[in-house]
Amino acid sequence: MDSMTGRLLVATPALKDPNFDRTVVLLVAHEPGGALGVVLNRATEVPVADVLGDWSDLARHPAVLFEGGPVQPDSAICLARMRHPIKPVKGFHRVSGAVGTIDLSVDPEKLRDAVGGIRVFAGYSGWGAGQLEREIEDGSWFVLDALPGDAFVDRPDDLWPMVLRRQGGMMAAVAHFPPDVALN
Question: Domain of 55?
């Protein structure tokens, strides 16, 4: 099995789970035992400053908490985009290129020069061994390459159609699929 860490899962119109309707998930880990990701396009109205005040200056617009997924909604995962991805930074775990997770117990002031922006996610999306692969085979997800800025777009609500349109061809046509049409 090739790891899909760092790739995007883009919900297809065939996906029936309302937790993932028109979502874009960045896989931050994919191993034989399962997969873990965060939903990139579900912003809340809760400012990062209200939850993690010290980190709010590093948060990209919109500087709000995101719903990372239905698993452990009281936990937090922080994605960061590093300015210099080659230099090792304490508390940073690379996912792909300059993007990775960052340990929220690290003093954010010490990261100010290294971090180009963060996103904080409440909860995460998780799959047991083989579960994600079965969902992909069933047509629930498109697996696509991520661009470094995907996790940090200014308009997260536009991410699902944006990612599909840039694929071109028939995939781009899916971006215009009506949200209220059920597939059988």
Answer: 5-173
